[in-house]
């Protein structure tokens, strides 16, 4: 019942978003184009829709033929302005997701800057060899006009059935989806029917050039966060597991673990959670309470926990993370990446 008290705030939020979009659409607020191709990976909801795995997929493919840079706001960082991410950066300075990407692609230029247009200009100035920029979570940042918009949609939370923040999870108008070029529907269920797909086609595709792809989140075997402290190899199938997450939508993470392990407790923290001393005590308490269990966390949380020197030894030897990527249904990954390459080249 208390949640319904958020409805008036949701109306106000929606009105502000609508006014802002109107000012951009009318040309009263200016959007800037650049001489370097920009691929924006975004969504219109809060919570995990798979933007980071998609950005990683694009970087991994495009880096074969391009000098790629990734530009992110660096959500939750304690710094301001333009900052290049290094492999030894602290996540509190650059954000957890940009650091995760830098660790995976150390040769890629990764930059955080809340003013995206300023960030692009600095990248062009300091890295003139960059010929492609991947803009992470920039769909609402309309001061920049990307060449391509890749829109991530959570199949479990269709935007047409959602509401504006704070009552729902929408942070932009559903009507703005006409600016997307490609839709990537993530977290599709195994039993997704052709009717479900046709309904998403009908609701999302409003312009002739738009195309939609259906995907699932694919997880691998848990890997030790501290290999020197943990036994070799992943935990045995069926082992007791404590699930630890600080992400927007932990449901798929929990379900993935439950397919192979006995999940005895779920610790779900806020998205972009900052781990502090009390969290280290909490982890130590879990290790003591469940001496025969391991603790498995997400890849994004692993980046943050790896930076901490306060993790007790009893936790370090039993702390694992679950790598994930996006698995396209019907082998359409190559089709999307080839289309993006043609878009970048201007074919």
Strand order of the largest sheet: 3-4-2-5-1-6-7-8-14
Number of domains: 2
Computed over alpha carbons, the radius of gyration is 21 Å
The averaged pLDDT comes out at 93
The fraction of residues assigned to DSSP E strands is 15-25%
Question: Number of helical runs?
Answer: 11
Q: Cα distance, first to last residue? A: 54 Å
Q: How would you name the CATH homologous superfamily of the largest domain?
A: P-loop containing nucleotide triphosphate hydrolases
Query: SSE string, helix = H, strand = E?
Result: HEHEEHHEHEEEHEEEHEHEHHEEH
Low-pLDDT sequence parts? none
Remind me, CATH topology of the largest domain?
A: Rossmann fold
Shape: globular
Number of strands: 14
Instruction: Write the CATH architecture name of the largest domain.
Output: 3-Layer(aba) Sandwich
Structural class by helix and strand composition: alpha/beta
Helix content: 25-40%
Question: Would you write up a description of this structure?
Answer:
- The structure is a single chain.
- The chain has 347 residues and is an alpha/beta fold.
- The protein folds into 2 domains: 29-218 and 327-345, P-loop containing nucleotide triphosphate hydrolases (Rossmann fold); 221-322, Rossmann fold, CATH 3.40.50.
- It is built from 11 helices and 14 strands.
- It has a 9-stranded mixed β-sheet, sandwiched between helices. The protein has a 5-stranded mixed β-sheet with strand order 9-13-12-10-11, with helices on both faces.
- Helix 4 (96-104) crosses helix 9 (299-305).
- The model has no long low-confidence stretch (mean pLDDT 93).
């Amino acid at each position: 019942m208390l949640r319904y008290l958020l409805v008036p705030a949701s109306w106000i939020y929606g009105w502000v978003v609508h006014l802002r979009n109107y000012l951009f659409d009318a040309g009263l607020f200016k959007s800037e184009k650049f001489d370097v191709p920009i691929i924006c990976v975004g969504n219109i909801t809060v919570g995990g829709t798979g933007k980071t795995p998609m950005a990683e997929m694009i970087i991994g493919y495009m880096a074969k033929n391009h000098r790629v840079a990734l530009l992110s706001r660096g959500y939750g960082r304690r710094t301001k302005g333009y900052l290049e991410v290094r492999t030894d950066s602290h996540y509190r300075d650059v954000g957890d997701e940009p650091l995760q990407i830098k660790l995976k692609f150390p040769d890629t230029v990764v930059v955080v800057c809340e003013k995206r247009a300023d960030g692009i200009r600095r990248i062009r100035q300091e890295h003139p060899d960059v010929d492609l920029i991947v803009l992470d979570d920039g769909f609402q940042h309309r001061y920049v006009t990307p060449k391509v918009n890749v829109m991530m949609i959570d199949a479990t939370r269709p935007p047409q059935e959602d509401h504006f923040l704070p009552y729902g999870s929408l942070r932009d108008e559903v009507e703005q989806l006409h600016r997307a070029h490609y839709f990537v529907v993530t977290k599709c269920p195994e039993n997704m029917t052709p009717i479900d797909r046709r309904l998403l086609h009908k609701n999302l595709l409003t312009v002739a050039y738009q195309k939609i792809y259906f995907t699932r989140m694919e997880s691998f075997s848990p890997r030790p966060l501290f290999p020197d402290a943990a036994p070799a190899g992943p935990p045995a199938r069926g082992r007791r597991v404590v699930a630890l997450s600080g992400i927007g939508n932990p449901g798929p993470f929990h379900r993935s673990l439950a397919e192979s392990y006995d999940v005895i407790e779920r610790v779900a923290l806020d998205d972009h959670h900052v781990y502090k001393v009390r969290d280290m005590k909490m982890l130590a308490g879990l290790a003591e309470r469940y001496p025969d269990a391991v603790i498995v966390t997400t890849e994004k949380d692993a980046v943050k926990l790896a930076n901490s020197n306060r993790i007790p030894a009893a936790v370090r030897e039993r702390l694992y993370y679950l790598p994930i990527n996006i698995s396209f249904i019907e082998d359409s990954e190559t089709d999307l990446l080839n289309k993006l390459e043609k878009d970048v080249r201007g074919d």
